[in-house]
Predict the structure.
Amino acid sequence: MLSPFDETSQSLVKKYLSQEIYQRLKTRSTVAGFTLEKAIRSGVENVDSAIGIYAGDPQSYQLFSEIFVPVIRAYHGFAQGDVHCAGFSPVTLSDPDPEKKYILSTRVRVARNVEGFNFTTHLSLQERQKLEKTVVAALALLPGPFSGEYTAFDGAVAGGNIFNKGDRFQDAAGINSDFPKCRGGFYAKDKRFRIWLNEEDHLRIISQETSADLAAVFNHLYSGLGALEKSLTFARNKRYGHLTTCPTNLGTSMRAGVHIRLKKLNNNRTLLHKIVDEYQLQLRGTGGENTEVEAAVFDVSNKQRLGISEVAIVSKLHRGLEAIIEAEKNCG
Ligand code: ARG
């Protein structure tokens, strides 16, 4: 068989998976049994994939490095030989929206995978159960402001589950297997700190507030994460930092962003995109990835995650938001 990809595919995997590499990698399997065929299934089935590959375990990044390396370099602008630089500590930042006119909420999340388990693309029900048990035991040990309650999905949670079943990209990657079993959400008492269990990564750890206080949201995440790391060890390596299911999240695995209402820039998208690109930010619709902008509310967050520290991400987002708000004010 020649390339498994449709000719019309624009994905990074299609671009970099030469026939030669494909032939070399297709017979390999990680110790846990993850193969290239599984890694690229989502990209093969979804012709509109931008990336087209997921890892099944930490070893995937080494065993299939001939395809992961060019994809990671292209997506993250990461040069060969580069090593991720972490730098996570509390920050002080001014309020980016002192008039409280534009920013509706602020959210910072990171992804984490527990060491010793396969990623969500490659988990049997039994392994997922064991993982859920391990994480729930750790959550029960969270102190003071981070203590809270874990609710397992059973399809009947009041107000709906904290996250939905994954999209078709995740579905083809195996991430939805046995859904909603062993999925759940944890809310700290004050609701500012929450954790998704077994969505795209084992844990999505989120700090969120209905304010523009980026530093407070970031610092709260830092503390909560520190508390969690007392009882859980997460998968990481020197080169890529935190190891995640999707290569787009490697490094800090951090997405820091806001919901911001930009009535004028909504009608001047060229200018908005120019600023967003300048600060290497990403624009999403109101409901997140692959959604539309409603009532001029944009989701603005960092695009860079690898080869940049957590502190640098949040500082750059802060500067970008100030520039966006300035442009919104001056927009005719
Ligand atoms: N696999 C999809 C693609 O290649 C999504 C990648 C980024 N999004 C994510 N949720 N990891 O286009």
About this structure: The pocket of arginine is lined by residues 11, 42-43, 49-52, 169, 200, 246, 248, 289 (CB under 6 Å). The CA atoms of residues 133 and 186 lie 13 Å apart. The longest helix spans residues 310-330.
